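Fold this sequence, please.
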Amino acid sequence: MGFHPTYGGARRGVGRLLPVVLPLLVTAPLAPPAAPPVAIVDVRLLPMDGSGPRDSQSVLIEGDRIRWVGSASDLAAPEGALVVDGRGRTLMPGLADMHVHLNREDLDTYLAFGVTTVRNMWGFPDAWVMRGEIERGEILGPAIHLVSSGLDGTPPKWPLTQLVMDPTVADSVVEVQRRAGYTTLKVYQDLRAEPYDSIVAAARRRGMDFVGHVPHRVGLERVLASGQRSLEHLSGYLEELTLVGGRGPRAWVRTRSERIPALAAATEAAGAWVCPTLTIAHRLGRALPADERDASRANRGAMVRALHRAGAGLLVGSDAGIEVVDPGASLHDELEEFVAAGIPPLEALRMATAGAAEFLGQVGEFGVIAPGARADLLLLDRDPLEDLGALEAPAGVMVRGRWFREPDPLPNRVRPREGLNPPAASPPARASADGRAPTR
């Protein structure tokens, strides 16, 4: 069965989320009313700034920024503030899903599962519209980082594919993307070597980044040497390792495991980041016999573990939006896969917060709880370092200083300012998905 992303419209195929009714600010005014300051007091803090967890902390939010962080005993909440009692709860930065394919109807779902930043990995016009509406406060949604539609060879596979078969046209194709506003190009799987090299040269002349697949005809070594900033889906590594041949989950069943350390070291030396999208690979391999499915998963995990040990940058991404894994919820699954691969929970969470900001060149802007950072926050009823399942139903989700889901007004929990009624939302039930689809 084919899968048909429609870029913000209704979608077809299996794996569609059941209809979800979540109260959103979809009709909010162009300039949202100023919210009062928010003081979250006496909470366990996971600041993701390298300092480790801290107990009995308070955080003051004014506008869309964190203004103060410190000991609970040192905070005097300003007059008119919304005071949230954090006792028994954990506060951490919002999550970043670094590989998605946006659909407009999924914006609220990302927030419901605590995803407050996304990297959209296939550009299309409505993505710019969505980003503008979010930045102007017309709707609530995650911060969107945009990547161009794919530059690829024949045959074309997705809408808006930019075909580059002739290396002499690469410069003009890249210039069109630059004029459209993109600062990052996506390279895709069927580029030939000479067009790939021409795209790289054209991007460098313009100071543009390039990310994406390791094209089959280019290979991992050449891609690492080119300066490609991120490599998606472990593409390229599979071709270097498989003993089975082919592509997809079955190709991971038997590998040349002795080559893994050298590939990880080469990745770190090149300064490349890797977004492995483990969950969707596991989902696509469900039809394999159990022993092959387990071996495929274990071998992908071994590659990720080696990359981490070598010091290579890792990004946490789901590949949601192509009808295989659920938006929002699948990022939690991806974190579980990272931990199963041997990455400590705190480090996995850092990758999905501060690590994403580092990759995007926005250290301190998001992904940390520190003065001056954007107020994208998750208030959890349990500590995710003890159980990542705590992420599945956040007690509160704040995005740019506005509650998407306000903490339950339990006795002695919240003292709201009169008249403040932020929207509340519960994460939807997960949908199932069967079948296979190419990853983008």
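The longest helix spans residues 290-310. The chain has a mean pLDDT of 88.
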